[in-house]
Design goal:
34% of the residues are buried. With 180 residues, the chain is α/β, with parallel strands linked by helices. It has a 5-stranded parallel β-sheet, sandwiched between helices. Helix 2 links the parallel strand 3 and strand 4. Helix 2 packs across helix 4 and helix 5 crosses helix 6.
């Protein structure tokens, strides 16, 4: 079982590596099995999740958490989205879940994603916003895209496309000066 940290800015990559090391010290059993995990910092440009080793878990870490980043991380297939300054025991729990093949979304992130969908409700038809809200709720409980979409009664690709469309509409409504 290996944990590989990749990233854009060296400082962010170093913070992510330190957070992972601290989490591993908090929960020694983390090194005893499970699948490999790739940790990518949110400032990585052009990272292709398909380039991960098949079967590896994917965690996106950031030093500047945002709801749009969290949604983008989910869309690219991340199993977890974590701030680098997350409490080490919570980070260890997230790592443990991802190593066991589960999704981990922090409760605060799940709530922010739900709020994003609610606030952006005017940007989507009501039925679509409701579907996305249900989907994000199930994802926040550790369900995979396929399971969650099946439960909501929509195609997994349609669910992702709906969330991508929502993010695009929000980005277009954002003044250019506020974009990173």
């Amino acid at each position: 079982m290996a944990i590989t940290v990749l990233g854009g800015e060296p400082a962010t990559r170093a913070m992510a590596a330190a957070a992972i090391a601290h989490a591993r010290r908090t929960m020694p059993k983390l090194g005893r099995g499970g699948r490999d995990v790739v940790v990518v910092t949110a400032d990585s440009r052009g990272y292709d999740p398909v380039s991960c080793l098949p079967g590896s878990g994917l965690i996106v870490m950031t030093d500047r958490p945002s709801v749009v980043q969290a949604a983008a991380a989910l869309l690219m297939g991340a199993d977890a989205y974590l701030p680098v300054d997350l409490n080490p025991s919570r980070a260890a729990e997230a790592l443990d879940r991802v190593m066991r093949g589960q999704t981990h979304i922090e409760p605060e992130t799940a709530e922010a994603l739900r709020a994003l969908v609610v606030l952006a409700g005017g940007l989507q038809p009501d039925f679509r916003a409701h579907e996305i809200r249900l989907l994000l709720d199930l994802r926040s409980r550790g369900w995979g895209w396929g399971e969650a979409a099946d439960s909501v009664g929509i195609d997994a690709r349609a669910a992702r496309a709906g969330l991508e469309d929502l993010l695009l509409r929000i980005r277009l409504a954002d003044p250019p000066a506020s974009r990173p």
